[in-house]
Structure formats: structure tokens, C-alpha cells
């Protein structure tokens, strides 16, 4: 199995915030008349105002957090220049393009309506339209009124507050109690190097890793902070990160099987699933693959047998793995890859 991947670990992960956007006003049209020697009554020659700069958001796959917007919350585009005499048009204000991570959902803050869901690299959306430039008096000349003394003012640029919410895009979401071995597994099958330690809540931010299998196939896994019982009441950290697995097609549920566990693995699995359901029943409808972890540190097989029996009953595909010795990992990755492929082809047919 060839292994490669991406890794990100920001010092501060930001996945939800408000920004203010103000597009530029259009420039005013100009009132002006030709003044030339020997041309007694020169016609109107006031040019149009320039368009105001718009504000656009652009999805970029090399960003993984909205941290830039945390430090830069106001975006104000320049106005268009006013039109001038001699039919000179005002220069348009420059657009501002704000780069955000792929997976960013953009809402109008006031109405809470979704404006865009930026899921493709390079996808752009105009979030505040620059005002149109006003027409100069030259544009109003008619056979009846050959010397109009008025011009249009420029239009106001759009202004609003937006709510940006990042929901990472990954194929597989890894869930489980803190310390279950989630980060160890992602570091074992991809190039991601998240922090791993023998205490709960080591992972504070989601991590993405690309796992490869077969010749040149791969899928993206997301490792999120562990979930504990009572997470829906705000216990632990994991609950707020569940939004990052909402878009995954499969959940990989890790359960510690080493001798150090004190609670039955079936109770653990059910407790974590209860929390998932309390966050969103839709998460429970996703196919789950269960992996009993740390089997290198397991001497009794009782827990393994109970868990595998339970999974069979629940129709969860079950694997027993060790991220330390690599036992079972290759088979697990291959299975996940196949399931991801199935999901992708289904989406292509029906989606
Ligand atoms: N023996 C053994 N230890 C493991 C294995 N996988 C993980 N561990 C250990 O278990 C501890 C927790 O691993 P992590 O990968 O940090 O667990 P996590 O699920 O990411 O934990 P949180 O980030 O706190 O939710 C670390 O000390 C790992 O070295 C395994 O397969 N075998
Ligand atoms: Mg971790």
C-alpha cells in the first residue's frame, strides 16, 4: 500500500464567524458640454461613472481554516470613479476576492439564508455587488432635448454581514471516544502527523489525511476530537466538531480493545452513537464501519468477540486492527476505499 497525504494543523482552527462586506458605490455620471472655438452650442459630453468594486469569495483547497477572516473581518471595495467631460468614463472600482477554504458555506447573517456552498476548488460567488455607474448627460440627449443638464448618480454598492461556516469535505469521518486511537490511525495511513498522546482530548482541531490504496486511488479521512457521553450537553470538545463529518459518506467508528479499558466496548460504541444521534439523526443514517483498535495490547479476546458479535447483529462491518503493528489496517483501508468508490458512483448515477 502506497501512502501519501496532506496534513494541516493550525495553531488556531476557526470554522465559524461573521464578516462584513461592503461593495463600492458606482461613480456619478457627469454633466458637461463641448466647449470649443467656433462651435457655438456644443452638445453634451458628460461621461458615465465607473462601476463600484464587488466583493467575491473564492474557494481554495490550500486553506483549511477561516483564520484569515478572524483577523480581517471587514472588506470594503473601492468606489467607481465619476464620469468626466469629453465623454470620459469613470474607472471601475477594483473587485476584492476573499479566499476561503473549500467547504465554506456562506449565509446572509440577517436572513440566515444560504447564499453559497463553495465545494469546488476555484468556485466563486459575488457576495456584495458593486453599484452601477450613473449615466452621463451625453446618454440623455434626444431630438427633443439636445442639451440635458442632468446626469445619473452612481448606484450604492451592496452592504451586508455574512456568516461563514466551514464544513470540511472528507469521504470518511473518524469517530470514537478520546484516546481510542483515531489520530494514530490517520497518521498510520496518511501523511498527516497529528499530535498523539496517552491522554484524552489530545486532538483539539480536525485533521485531514489522504489514504491511498490500490494503484492510484485515494480517499480523504477526517479525524475530529473525541466524543464523550454528555457531549450534547457541552461536555468535552467533540460536539462542536461534528459538523465536519456531516458531509462524509461513511463513518469509521474506533473502539479501544486494549486491556486498559474498563467499560464494555459495546457500551462505548452505543454511548458515542447516542451522542451522534443527539447532534443529528442524519449522522446515524450514515453507513458505519467499526474497528476495534489496539489489539496488540489485548490479551483477552472476550471484548473482541462481544464487539464483533454486536456489529454483526447491527450490520456494521467490523475490523480488528492495531495501528502500531499494522495488523488489519491494510484490509480496513481497502474496504473503506471500496465503499467510498461505491458511494461516488452512486452519486454520479443519481446525483
Ligand atoms: N498499543 C497500541 N497503542 C495505541 C494504538 N493506537 C493508538 N495507541 C495509543 O493510544 C493513545 C491515544 O492515541 P490517539 O491516537 O492520540 O487517540 P485519539 O483517539 O486521537 O485521542 P483524542 O485525540 O484524545 O481523541 C496513544 O498513547 C497511542 O500511542 C495501537 O494500535 N496500539
Ligand atoms: Mg486524536
CATH homologous superfamily caption of the largest domain? P-loop containing nucleotide triphosphate hydrolases
Number of domains: 2
Rounded to an integer, what's the Rg over CA atoms? 29 Å
Structure summary, number of beta strands: 14
**Which strand order do you get reading across the main beta sheet?**
10-11-9-12-13-14
* Class from secondary-structure proportions: alpha/beta
CATH architecture grouping of the largest domain: 3-Layer(aba) Sandwich
Q: What coarse outline follows from CA principal-axis ratios?
A: rod-shaped
Measure the end-to-end span. 31 Å
| pLDDT averaged over residues | 90
**Oligomer state of the chains in this structure:** single chain
Tell me the fraction of residues in β-strands, as a range: 15-25%
Low-confidence stretches: 1-11
Largest sheet: 6 strands, mixed
What is the CATH fold-level name of the largest domain? Rossmann fold
Bound molecules: guanosine-5'-triphosphate, magnesium ion
| Series of secondary-structure elements, N-terminal to C-terminal | EEHEEEEEEEHEEEHHEHEH
Report the top-level CATH class of the largest domain. Alpha Beta
